Amino acid sequence: MLTEINTPKDNRIVFAFPPDSGELAGQRYHLGLRFCDNPACRCGVIHVGLSPESSDLGADSDQAEPLPPSVEFGIDVHRRELDAQGSRQRGVKQQLGTAFVGALSTEDWTSLRRIFYAYKRKVTDETPDDEIEATFDADDIERASTMVSLQEVLPYAERKVVDIEGRRF
Ligand SMILES: [Zn+2]
Question: What pTM does this model have?
Answer without folding.
Answer: 0.70
